[in-house]
Amino acid sequence: MSNEKRHVSCFLVVREIETTMSEGEATTSNNPSANAMETAEKASDEFIEPETKRRKITKIDEKKYKLEERLGGILCCAVCLDLPRAAVYQCSNGHLLCAGCFTHVLADARLRDETSTCPTCRVEISKMLATRNLAVENAVSELPSECRFCNLQFPRNSLEKHEDEECEESRFFPARIAGCKYHRIGCPWRGPMHEKAHHEQECGHPEKSGAEVMEALELLDQQVVEERKLYKTIFELLGYDKIIFNDIQLKPYRTDDFVHRLFYESSRFSAFNNQWVVKARINDSQKDPTQSSEREMTYQLLLKTKTSTPMTLSYIVLRGPVGDIKVNPRVYQFNFTENETETAYESVPLSDTAECNRLLAAKTINFRLIMFLASK
Q1: pTM for this entry
Q2: DSSP 8-state class, residue 152
């Protein structure tokens, strides 16, 4: 009996399995969309790219879109980390510096009485040892930069022409940069021409009081008066009988103080039957000019021979045929006597701090000194 029961139970299990399989086949045959989906999934699985290949393609795409940024990081200046706008200098190990930072490094070394070194590798650099990297200059000029008007990107070597002549945002306007119409009452805004109307609608200067407007007008009037005074003085001086000019060359020296300070001095030169010397120094009020980012040069005129009669002398510094100093004209006057033989230190009206650094980076400073002697 036990064996018969076992055979019957096995027979029932087999019949149940066959019934289940037949029902599954019938369901599949009644649902062709499911069959199509399974076939499509199998086919797609056959054409899926390997993980390594997909990763490689993704990396190539990332490099394609980030190449300009990567080049910008490689070709940037080692000091300011910006892309150079003009000349690019390199040390003997190939580290790059833009023209502004290069002259700043040389100027700091001159002020400290140290040897100028590369900020990256500390190898010695100078105008003789450093070289221009023309390949980097050409590569940087081809990198894209954004137009400040239309925000489109153009190669750096053609961006200026685009902004001046071709920009669609301001092609109907003769000037690309414009000022607010309320600039005479103190508004300092300057920007793209197409933003001028929007700014003027929101400008707060028309709402200022009469006293505030008068302050701004007084400043403008003062500037105009100073310019007229300068031109009038120069024209009057050109009418003097005794006018002499000398091309001066200043060389760097050090003081004998505990902290050796830099100063410049010229050789003796003749004018009006007397011997003269010019001295110059950097940042009079600072013990260490390297601690300041703002730098200015002052100079004085010294009479080296004794004079029995007073001399009322006017003098002015200009760019000469030898040097390339960028200076704004400013006339100074001093009355030389037997006891008063040195003028006060007067400012050399340079264009900016970068110009001062450029002069410090040079071995010598050259300019033209024009002297006017008043007739008795």
Answers
A1: 0.66
A2: -
Q: How confident is the model at residue 250 (pLDDT cuts 50, 70, 90)?
A: very high
Q: Are 250 and 265 in contact (CB under 8 A)?
A: yes
Cα-Cα-Cα-Cα dihedral sign, residues 306, 311, 314, 318: negative
pLDDT tens track for 270-284? 999 999 999 999 987
Is a pLDDT exceeding 60 seen at residue 47?
A: no
Determine the 3-state secondary structure of 191 from DSSP: strand
Inter-residue contact 255 to 263 (CB < 8 Å): yes
- Measure CA of the first residue to CA of the last residue in the chain; give whole Å: 156
Backbone angles phi, psi at 311, to 5 degrees: -130, 120
Check whether 34 has a pLDDT greater than 80. Answer: no
Q: How many residues does the chain have?
A: 376
Torsion from C-alpha of 51, 52, 54, 57, nearest 10 degrees: 170
Residue 150 pLDDT level (bands cut at 50, 70, 90): confident
Residue 101: name the closest of 358, 362, 290, 327 by CA.
358
Q: How far apart are CA 219 and CA 208, in angstroms?
A: 16
Spacing of C-alpha 201 from chain mean position: 32
Give me the amino acid identity at 133. Answer: N
Closest to 372 (Cα-Cα) out of 230, 224, 237? 237
**Mean pLDDT across the chain:** 80
Cα–Cα distance between 234 and 240 in angstroms, integer? 10
Two tokens at 266?
Answer: 């010229």
Please give the sequence-ordered ranges of beta strands (E in DSSP) within 283-364, or none if there are none.
Answer: 297-303, 311-318, 332-336, 346-347
